[in-house]
Amino acid sequence: MKIILLILLTFSSHTFAHSAKNGDFLGTWRLVEFATDDQYQDVPTPTPIKMYMNGEFIIIFYLENKMHFNKGTYVLENGKVTETILASSTESLIGEKVTFKPNFMGDKNSFNLKIDFGDYKSFERWEKTHCDVVKCAEIRTRNN
């Protein structure tokens, strides 16, 4: 029985969620699911896009029919990411740091994260934009 349990744990750790490693973030991602205080919301149109490369990130999104962005650097240490905003369409965000522990799925084409901002908690799930062309594992964190 212990052997079966050990095999199942090993299999699930390789098939399901994984923590982040160097190189996992590289590329272009799109927001596919999000919630505030466990209240899921529709993903805005156009879909928010986030790009990571060479220790830098940029996110582009629309609010009230106006394009917004945050640009900065990111560091991955001990499975946690810290993003520092260096430029933003919202000036008050410049200098802000956001830290989160991404939870990657087995194929590394999707990850989710939770952030506690104090006043509210945010949940986001991102997937690689190439999932339109390449078959990626489909995960759902809620029932539709």
Task: Write up what this structure looks like.
The N terminus is likely disordered. It is built from one helix and ten strands, in the order αββββββββββ. A hairpin with an 8-residue loop joins β6 and β7. It is mainly beta and 144 residues long. Strands 1, 2, 3, 4, 5, 6, 7, 8, 9 and 10 form a ten-stranded antiparallel beta sheet that branches. The chain has a single domain, classed as Lipocalin. The chain is 10% helix and 47% strand.
Describe the structure in brief.
The chain has one helix at 2-15; strands spanning 27-36, 39-41, 49-53, 56-63, 66-77, 80-88, 97-100, 103-104, 110-116, 121-128.
As for the number of domains, it is 1
**The level-1 CATH class:** Mainly Beta
Which overall shape is indicated by the principal axes computed on the Cα atoms?
Answer: globular
CATH architectural type: Beta Barrel
- Biggest pleated sheet: 10 strands, antiparallel
What is the string of SSEs from the N terminus onward?
HEEEEEEEEEE
Number of helices: 1
Distance between the termini: 36 Å
Beta-strand percentage range: over 45%
Unreliable stretches, pLDDT < 50, 5 or more residues? 1-17
- Structural class, judged by helices and strands? mainly beta
Approximately how much helix is present in the residues?
under 10%
CATH fold name: Lipocalin
Q: What is the number of E strands?
A: 10
* Mean pLDDT figure: 83
Radius of gyration: 16 Å
